[in-house]
Design a protein that fits this description.
By secondary structure, the chain is α/β, with parallel strands linked by helices. It is 30% helix and 22% strand. The protein has one domain: Aldolase class I (TIM Barrel, Alpha-Beta Barrel). Strands 1-2-3-4-5-6-7-8 form an 8-stranded mixed beta sheet, with helices on one face. The longest helix is centred in the last third of the chain and has 14 residues. The two termini are 33 Å apart.
Amino acid sequence: MISGLQKMTLLDFPGKVACTVFLQGCNFRCPFCHNSDLLGKGNEPFMTPDDLLAFLSKRVGLLDGVCVSGGEPTLSPELENLLRSIKVLGFAVKLDTNGSNPALLKKLVGDGLVDYVAMDVKNSPAAYPETVGLSRVNMEALEESLGFLMEETVPYEFRTTVVAELHSEATIQDMGQWLFSLSGGKKLKQIYLQKFENRESVLLDGLHSPEFSQLQRYQELLRPYFDTVAIRGE
């Protein structure tokens, strides 16, 4: 179910002028989530898939790509057909995912329906449940998605939204070592540290952005494991 549309973005899809489509529903309950209104399934749809395709058909030649986000888009039973229809119109597709559905991620990439993947890496393994608001997390599924992306079958990025109350030097260090171990000790391509911004739509009150100097410290801790460690939201 489509719950929102950003008609144009220069930031969400690297190197492309794109729009961003938001799908309803998520299996995580991250306390810092900005899109808390998308977590459930009780809202009326913002638009139908046909409405979206009509919008996109008028943007051929004006937009290069479509970002499909959420929520967690891989939960949507409409996703595969929606991506096929978007690709028929000639747009590149970027998928934002939490990595919890590796089988579908592999299928979408294998079928040529996704051109770029942004996977959220929430925290170190030990801190994952608290960071995503669950009592436990299927880390094997996440590691399968991470390992698949590390094979570089499709262009990708990892990204971590940093929250003062949820991240520390110890958890960031552990996160870097975890990812490095999954790669077999091979330096990874890129990760983006995104500064948390408090908004009215955030799921949990009382969270704070880290100081920029702290983000820079986290950046240095991750440099041994990545070719590029960049900060977003400076």
